[in-house]
């Protein structure tokens, strides 16, 4: 039987710029493809047919093109070299995209092996609950989105998000909602109620829409109002923009 491979966009070392692991150094493995088409999508390289790019030295941006698909052996060899040469630097491996759960068949084989190197952090749009279920045992931390219509343009994902939350809540988990100038109170109420129906202690992070240069475009008073609404339902609600953009990190 052939070994599972994956279509990867890029592999690199950087600091996590979003969510609860903000500031931690991670190995990022970015998978190609997504099941959604959000209006603010900021990972266009997850959708091209060009070769993937792998960083050779962690954090030095010495990328080399690498034909897809990429094998697990190639990846393990690269990351293992980084961990030997730069011990203690990396906190975890970020499995990101696109939407990495589209590569479920590959991840079934890859995650147990990658997890021998570092803890596994899954960044996901929080919709592919059927794909998550058999993988959950090999994941340590999950950062999932709830996509609200005003910023994503996506509608009718509420039921998928609920099913995803119920599975993901078995691990360390936080939820991220991207908020913008057009975000409505009802979207925040519905998101917060959804999370609290599973566990009100799951942290919720509002990520105000952040421009490519790191400027937050949402009225600061409005962001505080949205936080106040969510705090009626949840124990922990934070506001964190995309910090990697103003640090010029990847
Ligand atoms: S879920 Fe993420 S990768 Fe997919 S379209 Fe939306 S922003 Fe882009």
Automatic annotation (TrEMBL):
<keyword id="KW-0479">Metal-binding</keyword>
<comment type="similarity">
    <text>Belongs to the radical SAM superfamily. 7-carboxy-7-deazaguanine synthase family.</text>
</comment>
<feature type="binding site">
    <location>
        <position position="96"/>
    </location>
    <ligand>
        <name>substrate</name>
    </ligand>
</feature>
<keyword id="KW-0460">Magnesium</keyword>
<keyword id="KW-0456">Lyase</keyword>
<keyword id="KW-0411">Iron-sulfur</keyword>
<feature type="binding site">
    <location>
        <begin position="40"/>
        <end position="42"/>
    </location>
    <ligand>
        <name>S-adenosyl-L-methionine</name>
    </ligand>
</feature>
<dbReference type="InterPro" id="IPR024924">
    <property type="entry name" value="7-CO-7-deazaguanine_synth-like"/>
</dbReference>
<keyword id="KW-0004">4Fe-4S</keyword>
<protein>
    <recommendedName>
        <fullName>7-carboxy-7-deazaguanine synthase</fullName>
        <ecNumber>4.3.99.3</ecNumber>
    </recommendedName>
</protein>
<comment type="subunit">
    <text>Homodimer.</text>
</comment>
<dbReference type="Pfam" id="PF04055">
    <property type="entry name" value="Radical_SAM"/>
</dbReference>
<dbReference type="InterPro" id="IPR013785">
    <property type="entry name" value="Aldolase_TIM"/>
</dbReference>
<comment type="function">
    <text>Catalyzes the complex heterocyclic radical-mediated conversion of 6-carboxy-5,6,7,8-tetrahydropterin (CPH4) to 7-carboxy-7-deazaguanine (CDG), a step common to the biosynthetic pathways of all 7-deazapurine-containing compounds.</text>
</comment>
<comment type="pathway">
    <text>Purine metabolism; 7-cyano-7-deazaguanine biosynthesis.</text>
</comment>
<feature type="domain" description="Radical SAM core">
    <location>
        <begin position="21"/>
        <end position="250"/>
    </location>
</feature>
<keyword id="KW-0949">S-adenosyl-L-methionine</keyword>
<dbReference type="InterPro" id="IPR007197">
    <property type="entry name" value="rSAM"/>
</dbReference>
<dbReference type="InterPro" id="IPR058240">
    <property type="entry name" value="rSAM_sf"/>
</dbReference>
<feature type="binding site">
    <location>
        <position position="41"/>
    </location>
    <ligand>
        <name>[4Fe-4S] cluster</name>
    </ligand>
</feature>
<feature type="binding site">
    <location>
        <position position="34"/>
    </location>
    <ligand>
        <name>[4Fe-4S] cluster</name>
    </ligand>
</feature>
<feature type="binding site">
    <location>
        <position position="30"/>
    </location>
    <ligand>
        <name>substrate</name>
    </ligand>
</feature>
<feature type="binding site">
    <location>
        <position position="38"/>
    </location>
    <ligand>
        <name>[4Fe-4S] cluster</name>
    </ligand>
</feature>
<keyword id="KW-0671">Queuosine biosynthesis</keyword>
<keyword id="KW-0408">Iron</keyword>
<feature type="binding site">
    <location>
        <begin position="15"/>
        <end position="17"/>
    </location>
    <ligand>
        <name>substrate</name>
    </ligand>
</feature>
<feature type="binding site">
    <location>
        <position position="43"/>
    </location>
    <ligand>
        <name>Mg(2+)</name>
    </ligand>
</feature>
<feature type="binding site">
    <location>
        <position position="98"/>
    </location>
    <ligand>
        <name>S-adenosyl-L-methionine</name>
    </ligand>
</feature>
